Amino acid sequence: MVGDIGTAEELAQDALVAALEQWPTSGVPAKPGAWLMGTAKHRALDLIRRRATLARKHEEIAREVERMGTTVDLDASIDEHMGDDLLGLIFMACHPVLSNDARVALTLRVLGGLTTAEIARAFLVPESTIAQRIVRAKRTLAEEHVRFEIPTGPERTARIESVLEVIYLIFNEGYAATAGEDWLRPALCEEALRLGRILAELTPTESEVFGLVALIEIQASRLPARLGPSGEPVLLIDQDRARWDRLLIRRGLAALERVERLASPLGPYALQAAIAACHARASTVAETDWRRIVALYDAFAEIARSPVVELNRAVAVGMAFGPAAGLRFVDALVAEPALREYHLLPAARGDLLRKLGRRAEARAEFERAASLTDNARERDLLKRRAAECAAG
Amino acid sequence: MRVLVLAKESERSEQPTPPTEEAMAAYQKFNAELVKSGVVLAAGRLHPSAQGKRVRFEGKTRTVLDGPFTETKEFVGGYWLWQVRSMDEALEWLKRAPFDGGTFEVREVAEHEGM
Q1: Domain boundaries, chain A
Q2: Rounded to two decimals, what is the model's pTM?
Q3: Which of B38, B57, B70, B113 is 20 to 30 A (C-alpha) from A262?
Q4: What's the ipTM?
Q5: Mapping DSSP to helix (H, G, I), strand (E, B) and coil, where does residue A183 land?
Q6: Contact yes or no for A33 and B112 at CB 8 A
Q7: pLDDT tens by residue, A328-378
Q8: Nearest-by-CA chain A residue for B97
């Protein structure tokens, strides 16, 4: 029987590829969770049996297969490789030849087990759009001869990055949604968390996988505190920290510890997670280690310099070294073309000016920030802050 | 959604004979599958209720009671906190557990919307 394990593995892989092709048309199994538990394993066995039957030969093999189906050994041997197959499928769904939209849709469909209707609702687009994306994605994978494989060497890093990007996109799509009317958008956060946790189990030596998991676990811990009673956004520094989910924080910090054992220096996700962890560890804003946050932003800016990162760093400088120091850095960004329409720049500037007692200027900045945002809730918040400056 | 899976035990099974090595291995394999699938958020086994305490609230009075609690027929012997997509998925998982006795209760955790 041991000699046949190779065949069994090959067929298990076939079954997964078949699943990728068939599920979008025949529908994902009614219980997608069961798939992750090894339904594909049973599919493989079915496939072996079916092939054996169809061929009406190799009776010996067929008998072997019957026997294999009832022994624990085959289960165990396929189980070991199920992880590889699942990982291969993740790499395939997140392949860089696909657009971000296509990768996200395919990942949610094939790995998350969401229906096209559910994905469409989550992304607020028509169902036909998602169906088309999936069809096109499948065609692209075929045309580009994307192989079902687990990349190694330098390619592996790039492919892992692509997977992480997809998971983070899914998470942010859920996290950025402030409208509470559709439960599916927060459910995207849950999907992303779960995919991240699965990936972490499959790739226990990839530090950035743990970096991403740490980041989204910690960010998700704040979800219960992010919205006020009437659905308005609550800024991180104004959040009721008692409402943060301690379980997710603990999980996030544990993932971060794992990163720190695996990698030095930290990658971009790990650095962002480390920044998030500074907030998570502090029970009040005043207790936050802002100097460490500034240092982490310095490191982050070295590998991913962007005006938005510079702005975040400037805000942290303001908290660590006083509003005057922060304002100097923010002022240096005012001429930055990429931030010209970015409402958080005047919002941050307004906040620093207010702390310096320059109320009239602060008020003008908050009003400018309010005029730049499309989000009605955020606009209300900024207008309120402008009014507070006027009230003295 | 999150579900809390409670292992219910009778008073008699609260001090069970230690599980066999095979049973333990089967349980660990199942638990590893759960973890690999991103389902387990937290898990734990509880000491017998003889080592437990109860605090009863009556108005302003608090009375501390020592275990075991002989009037109770069922005890919680252990728990899992799972992240699943539906109650169906939780049941699918639970039915695969390698237990040959006992009752398990699955309860959805009431959370803020969506998480």
Answers
A1: 1-151, 338-392
A2: 0.79
A3: B38
A4: 0.81
A5: coil
A6: no
A7: 999 999 999 989 989 999 999 999 999 999 999 999 999 999 999 877 778
A8: A37
